[in-house]
């Protein structure tokens, strides 16, 4: 899977970030099946998907790389647009914010730690599931 698509999957799980309090709220389900808002302390790091640019080329244009053949089929205008950022979109992970919230794990309480571990596990499961679905879709369409 293209790293930008992985970025989108990660980005979706960031929850609601409050830059004033440096906290992030994520919705979780606790062991009793109740929805709970988990509030976590965060810090910001440069987004790894766009390397802090806030944009990247739309992965639907070149997620598998551009082959020499494709490149040759393009006209000058298209090539220029590609190099010049015409196909750039707001970063799928950070939404153009250039930074991503990272949970400050050293500041978590025991309760937060326990919940956050569950949350991370859920994200990992979600991403694994999405990858599987994407793989199946590719198999069905015969497009490898
Ligand atoms: Zn980004």
Q: Explain this structure to me?
A:
This protein is of the alpha+beta class and 144 residues long. The protein has helices at 3-12, 59-62, 68-73, 76-84, 110-141, and strands at residues 16-18, 23-29, 35-46, 55-57, 88-90, 99-103. The termini are close together. 14% of the residues are buried. Bound molecules: zinc ion.
What's this entry about, in short?
This protein has 144 residues and is of the alpha+beta class. Helices cover 42% and strands 23% of the residues. The model has no long low-confidence stretch (mean pLDDT 89).
Q: Main sheet, how many strands, which sense, barrel?
A: 4 strands, antiparallel
Strand order of the largest sheet: 1-2-3-6
Which ligands, by name, code or SMILES, are bound?
Answer: zinc ion
Rounded to an integer in angstroms, the radius of gyration calculated over CA atoms is 19 Å
Report the end-to-end length measured between terminal Cα atoms. Answer: 11 Å
> In terms of structural class, how would the helical and strand content be classed?
alpha+beta
Q: What is the β-strand count?
A: 6
Domain tally = 1
Judging from the principal axes of the Cα atoms, what is the shape? flat
Ranges with pLDDT <50 over ≥5 residues? Answer: none
Give the helix tally: 5
Strand residue content = 15-25%
Give helix and strand order, one letter per element, not per position: HEEEEHHHEEH
Helix content: 40-55%
What's the pLDDT, averaged over the residues?
Answer: 89
């Amino acid at each position: 899977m293209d790293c930008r698509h992985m970025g989108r999957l990660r980005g979706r799980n960031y929850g609601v970030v409050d830059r004033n309090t440096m906290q992030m709220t994520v919705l979780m389900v606790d062991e009793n099946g109740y929805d709970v808002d988990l509030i976590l302390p965060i810090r910001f790091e440069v987004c790894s998907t766009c390397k802090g640019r806030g944009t990247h080329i739309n992965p639907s244009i070149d997620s598998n790389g551009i082959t020499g053949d494709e490149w040759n089929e393009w006209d000058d205008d298209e090539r220029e647009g590609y190099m010049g950022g015409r196909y750039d979109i707001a970063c799928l992970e950070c939404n153009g914010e250039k930074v991503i919230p990272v949970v400050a794990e050293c500041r978590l309480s025991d309760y937060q730690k326990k919940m956050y571990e569950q949350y991370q596990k859920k994200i990992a499961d979600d991403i694994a599931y999405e990858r599987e679905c994407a793989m199946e879709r590719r198999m069905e369409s015969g497009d490898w």
